[in-house]
Amino acid sequence: xxxxxxxxxxxxxxxxxxxxxxxxxxxxxxxxxxxxxxxxxxxxxxxxxxxxxxxxxxxxxxxxxxxxxxxxxxxxxxxxxxxxxxxxxxxxxxxxxxxxxxxxxxxxxxxxxxxxxxxxxxxxxxxxxxxxxxxxxxxxxxxxxxxxxxxxxxxxxxxxxxxxxxxxxxxxxxxxxxxxxxxxxxxxxxxxxxxxxxxxxxxxxxxxxxxxxxxxxxxxxxxxxxxxxxxxxxxxxxxxxxxxxxxxxxxxxxxxxxxxxxxxxxxxxxxxxxxxxxxxxxxxxxxxxxxxxxx
Length: 295
Known about the structure:
Helices cover about 60% and strands about 0% of the residues. By secondary structure, it is mainly α. The protein has a two-stranded antiparallel ribbon with strand order 1-2. Helix 2 packs antiparallel against helix 3. The protein starts with a helix and ends in a 14-residue tail after the last helix. The model is unreliable at about 1-5 and about 290-295 (pLDDT under 50).
């Protein structure tokens, strides 16, 4: 009985593991000054959460649940919601940014930057950005699955324990903050933001936590509602793919504190309002995580 009381909770073990890995690599990058560590952290970042979840299950001896099913076609409404709503909101945020700062809009979409080429297409009107982003969401569906490892760890595995301990709303907010804090070693070295931003890298780091809370609410909502973190992985992929597009339509192609990428205060505004609405609705959402779906 005493051993059971002294046994660490899965939440604590998972967080210790993920922070140790990410901050340990961040410190190593800072000390050595080699970009190889930074690049490795960026590439492997999505796999660390699921690794931490597996290790936590092994340490605690408790099975734990990943709340994952690949059968997203069984709930087409949730799939459509996950695949397109985030992209539309990102597009609206980008349009808002360019309407407020019209001089930032280059009128050219330099899509070749992702491929290392000079390929580009003229987009005279910012409103067409929305169409570009929506089309990209449909084309990039297979790439969306690359974020599954991160969502299995944070929403599929950890969130369930946090809901049991804190209740839904508090758990979702805590989960988002912790998820944001794990990103900071990457952001410190220039991930998602320009290091020429005022107060960088610390302003970038603070804003990243806020953005992760906003996105975390949305990802958690769909996971709680469906009992399946696969939908959150689809959303996450959409955000990562489409979220990088607006900056390719600026003159300097650098992401600032206001936008045009959804990591900026102005550009994330539509996602922020949407997340608040979902947080209010969350108490009425059907908690289907009791399905106990395992991989």
